[in-house]
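Blinded run. Sample ID left blank on purpose so nobody reads anything into the name before looking at the predicted structure. Input follows.
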Amino acid sequence: MCFVMYRQSVDYKCASKRASFTSPFITYWISECYKWRNRVLSLKTRHQTKSNIVKGFSIQGKQSGNMLVGLKYKGYLNELTYLCGRIIKKKRMKYLLVSDIHGCLPALEKVLQFYDREHCDMLCILGDILNYGPRNSIPEGIDAKGIVEALNKRANDIIAVRGNCDAEVDQMLLKFPMMGDYTLLVDEGRKLFLTHGHIYNKEKMPQGHVDAIVYGHTHLWELSQQDGTLVCNLGSITFPKGGNVPTFMTYEHGGFTAYTLDGKALKQERI
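Blinded prediction complete.
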């Protein structure tokens, strides 16, 4: 972001370009704002008249990438002080978590539509992606090839783990890694342990403390606290059990929300 101060007759104006930047530069930009504020205040002392001073700045913020701040000449000088304290609004990541697709393309398409509509940032797939599984019936709309095509288009935004029905041949088709037994996602300092559920689950927790364990496998969705850890079972979008509807979840800023395929929220729980 660039601040430009210049003198035109007896007025001082401020202009800026919208830009995105990452957290290592936060301190630098805030210090720059204070620097410009002090310069304006010194000008006010020098000229001893309000007409010679910019009366202020107003904020027009719009997120892009990780952070974004826009400034527009318009308002009152004290708003620059406000800006120094709140110049950067960090964009929170929003994750969509889904498990046990089992080769059903129509169900996955509804999830992807929700992903796009809600402007999610990352898709987390927790196993059993292509294979319908020998213990399950063949789902309506089974289309493993179609799922491969749909997911490979989004490969850069996907993290995935292996389910008990996934095989090496699935990895040969998919462009994102998906053969790990788990992955540890750290977001805003919170540790989320992502796994399928056949190895680690609420009855067999991983070593060390995590804020949430997220899995599927049983096809029974759940959001509950257990000994200081949030247990998140995503259920299944294809073969829900226990009289449940197909479900998936989102995670954002410490909060999980369970949804139906129609996008109806079922339950929310915070870490």
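Unblinding after everyone has recorded impressions. Residues 2-85 form one domain.
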